[in-house]
Amino acid sequence: NGSQFEGMMRYDARIAVEKALEEKGLYKGKEPNKMRLALCSRSGDILEPMITPQWYVNCDGMAKRATDAVRNGTLKIVPDEHEKTWFQWLDNIRDWCVSRQLWWGHQIPAWFATKKGESLAKNDMTNNDRWIVARDEDEACEKAAKLLSCAKEEIELERDEDVLDTWFSSGLFPFSVFGWPDNTSDLKAFYPTSLLETGLDILFFWVARMVMMGLELTDTLPFHTVYLHAMVRDKEGRKMSKSLGNVIDPLEVINGCTLESLLKKLEGGNLPQKEVARAKKDQEADFPDGLPECGSDALRFGLLAYTVQGRDVNLDMKRVVGYRNFCNKLWNATRFALQFVSDFKPTPTLLDDLMSSGKMAMRDKFMVSRMMNCCEKVNEYLGSYKFGDSQMAAYSYWLDDLCDVYLELIKPVVYDLSESNADSRWAAQATLWIALETGLRILHPMMPFVTEELWQRLPGRGTLGSDEPETIMLASFPECNDAYKNAQAEESMQITMNLIKACRSLRSSYNIGNHVQTQFFVKVASGPAEDAARAQTDDIITLGRAKKVDVNPAESEIHESVGIVVIDDQSTVLMDLTGIVDYAAEVKKLEKTLSKTTPALKSLEKKIAAKGYEENVNEELKKANEEKLEGLKSKAAEIEEAIQKFKRLAELEKK
Asked: What is the pTM for the complete model shown?
């Protein structure tokens, strides 16, 4: 046996084993054997396993209770795709090694018992019966006296120096912080909790341990829902690592950081110089200008947007900067909108007053309906932990509905101070105030700082009665009122926006400047399309930059010199071109453009038709040339078509 080597250091033992083999005539020689050696990153020492006795916990029963809780729906894991991981770990559970050879942590409550004068090796597995597990040393002494059949005075106890696995201590967290094992008032009041939010990478290491130990020690689940967030990685999907130099500090995103500061931080760490050089190279490539100041709202909003991706967040700083621009848009749009309601006085029941006033235009009904739909979606998504979807719904409401449509539509209404427009102006102001205030409350959990600042600036703050909250943080979260949703208004606005897009398309195709107002003829089928066009003619004039819009005019009223856009089988828009377009000048500009396009097209055709092209040019370049050729042909055809169109219109105008 190998007893002669017992107690030797491993390096000495290797030499001794070789000599023993030689003495016994069993030595056959040695030769180099390539292998991977684990090295300590700090000291450079070779890391080798050392087999020592450890403490284990049998988890079979606890694991079964944890899997049963998920299977019967008592415990919910969100997203549910991670239930597979839960079952994979716990259905194949093994004994849990809970001892660690560290200097910090909960010391294992186990004592090695001997009689005075007795010398036994505690790491000798044959002496396992001498280990006593107890709550404290007094209890251990009593158990040892009973085990060894002697008086307590004859007992010597030595506590195991090992500490409990970090995850063992962490598994006690949900109830130990409230004074467990004592049945304290805090434990009664706050345990169990409801929701655990954590990373998917520690689903087994922490979450499963909390569930198992909660059920085993308190007979109660520590929470009923587990929400697992995505892991944040760099834009290429790599795990953030100091050695890669791709770690993004949230504070540096919030406050901004120069490239020089990023590189200096690497030098102050404990990385080897080789890794420092590589990390610097990566950071110079990823952040050539450092990290721009984005603020916490943009960072929070950006991270929420990424949660629709699934398991990981491949964080691209350019996208966070994009949401910083959204913050600026939100700030500027709200500040701009505030001038529209500077003389407006809101009331505590403003929404109900507005809806029952009978003064609302179709655009106002549309805005309130879109607001209610947004409230419904955001509440639904937040309730089901779809934070990315709630972010997108709020983002779309502000940009697509409020800023791009409604704010533009009401400009002429609010600027018109005539008595005849008073009711329409009040309705527009009331709708805008409600849309802004509600929109800020919707956004507040996602962008707390900018929304608080803007909410405090809304007119009427401090005049809305005793129930008015002092801060947006204390305001109730918006909820949907189905009675205020209006599908007809939304359909009407959709039809109107299609007509407006057609108007804009016509102006763009004929290069008509914004300062020139045009006349449009709108042909629509009877029914909802015609109703929308007639009800929102003013809105078409506003956003289509028109001086006049005629809906379903007589054919005799439509000039021959018109531009046409067919939207669908029910809607067509025509624009009067009489006296607006200088056809000769347009033809001249187009012919000049064509004179530059045609030589490039012919040159490329000649190149492709040249001898040896197919044999000598690689496939990637061939594909690029084909795409370029198609683009040039399409461009030339469009220019020629436009030239013929302008010539035809010029002839019509002469008549």
From this structure: 0.77
